[in-house]
Amino acid sequence: MRCCLLLCCLLCCAPGMARALPPASDAPAEDALNLYCLRLSYPAVSALERDEDGAQWLVLSDGRRVLYSRERAGLQADPWDVDVRSSMADLYPLEPERPPTPAGVAPGRRRSHTLLSALYGVDAGEVGRGLRTALLLGQPVRMAQAAALALQKVETLLAEAVRAEPGLRDLLKSDGGFLWRRVAGERRLSPHAYGVALDLSARRAPYWRWSSLRPHPMQQSYPSAIVAAFEAQGFIWGGKWHEYDLMHFEYRPELICKARILRELEKMNAAGLKTGGAMGEKEARP
Length: 286
Fold this sequence. Notes:
This protein has 286 residues and is α+β, with helices and mostly antiparallel strands. 39% of the residues lie in helices and 13% in strands. The chain is built from 10 helices and 8 strands. It has helices at residues 2-13, 17-20, 29-41, 84-87, 113-120, 124-129, 145-164, 218-221, 224-231, 253-284; strands at residues 45-50, 56-60, 65-69, 131-136, 139-144, 197-199, 235-237, 248-251. A hairpin with a 5-residue loop joins β1 (45-50) and β2 (56-60). α1 packs parallel to α3, α3 (29-41) crosses α10 (253-284) and α7 (145-164) runs antiparallel to α9. It starts with a helix and ends with a helix.
């Protein structure tokens, strides 16, 4: 029943949702929501198909396929490099939400590197050909084209925020966007290698491996105006992870899309409960 309600609400609330959906019998509501957000975020994603073994695959416009989900969920070789469904499973909390981040809570830190490679490139040369330069308060930042366009819109929001609160500028020093490298202390590629991440004021906003604090107080005190500006244009913030990365903003519009839709659904449900309660009291009166 809950899945049916979610699916109906998505059809009503999300323009174009019906065109994104595979047959209802082939996809639970969450898969339908994920596919809608993936297609909205990445036009190269064209369909979701199931193979004879039960695995589901995203089909790209050029015919390539990316693993969306396995038939049976199980341990993956690298818990941080996962299939697409798993990369979207942890709901990202939108501002002003700053929930606790116990071990294992890191919405957005699990990524499908296969999808990233398909969207942005498999090596430094291919990624590099798709880079563009955006400005962040006058500072040039090289990112993948879609991320650069989004960052340019973030700059407008941040410029307004800095005019209202000049002290924010201290946390907005660019420490780089694209860089073909691995995650610090780990073996897999960083999202910086795909041109979808940037770091801000690294000396002020540390990475978890550089600090003994668990959690870090800045996970709560970091200015919401900065985080909200990035989230408004499809970026997530690494301060909402157990393995926090307070300087880190990453272009993951599919996660922001999913979080927005589910938050609106919660508001609708809450409004319905209040309305239903009021109606019930009225009808019960003699």
